[in-house]
Write a structure and sequence with these properties.
about 250 residues, alpha/beta, 5-stranded parallel β-sheet, 10 helices, about 15% strand, globular
């Protein structure tokens, strides 16, 4: 069996930790990961479809465990199916997980909070979570909730939409020509650079015990962001007090 990523727990979200020797959170590139095949689906599907996809995902993960080090948590909008998927994947031997349907979750703050917090509570301490899709302004609060990494693919996705990602805002360059005549590859590079900056920004705030300050600052950037923080504070205060740095 190939060597799994080694994780040193940061004793909960909002604390500095390491995955494979690197500080978390960190950026993951798909080309560097051996992701187990999985059966994906849309977020809002009938339960029967979600159950089938979870069963197939677990089967494929079991068949490919010798060659893969990352599994995907399926289950669509059903929290119990997501937890079931996580538990069975951990039993197989995986400790790195990509949370599927990240784009849909960002538009459903209540379900985003419930899912991430539930997975963190149920997971083994050695397990770590990678968010599949994110806007840069969401990265601090996702880290605050316990996400350990982010796929770089979102930078590529936004470059094809001609959208520049910055720490506080996404700019459609067709409407806001901040960069004129920029190629798709050049825009992808800038999005990656800005993503790397946000990671460094998060690390600095974590070390200075001020991640909560950064989260509150970024919460004003989008309605979904501020809703996520309000829901997190209102429904998961015990979790925050136990695992995170409030200030």
């Amino acid at each position: 069996m190939i060597k799994k990523f080694e994780i040193k727990s940061h004793d909960g979200p909002g604390r500095v930790g390491k995955v494979d020797g690197e500080l978390t959170p960190r950026i993951f590139f798909k080309r560097d990961l051996k992701i187990a095949p999985n059966e994906g689906s849309s977020y809002n599907v009938d339960r029967e479809i979600a159950e089938f996809n979870v069963a197939e995902t677990i089967k494929l993960a079991q068949e490919n465990v010798e060659d893969c080090d990352i599994a995907v948590i399926q289950g669509s909008k059903y929290i119990d199916l997501r937890i079931e998927c996580l538990k069975k994947l951990e039993e197989i031997g995986y400790n790195g997980f990509i949370i599927a349907n990240g784009d849909a979750l960002l538009t459903n703050p209540r379900e985003l909070v419930e899912l991430v917090v539930s997975l963190k509570k149920e997971a083994k301490k050695s397990s770590y979570f990678i968010f599949s899709f994110t806007e840069l302004s969401f990265m601090p609060i996702l880290t605050y909730m316990g996400i350990d990494g982010f796929l770089a693919d979102s930078a590529n996705y936004y470059s094809y939409l001609n959208v520049l990602q910055t720490p506080t805002k996404a700019y459609d360059l067709n409407t806001y020509p901040i960069y004129e005549d920029i190629s798709q590859k050049e825009l992808e590079k800038k999005n990656i650079e800005n993503m790397e900056f946000v990671i460094k920004e998060i690390h600095a705030h974590m070390k200075n015990r001020s991640l909560r300050n950064l989260v509150e600052e970024r919460s004003a950037t989008t309605p979904q962001n501020i809703s996520t923080l309000k829901i997190l504070d209102r429904t998961c205060m015990d979790y925050l007090l136990e695992f995170t740095q409030l200030f």
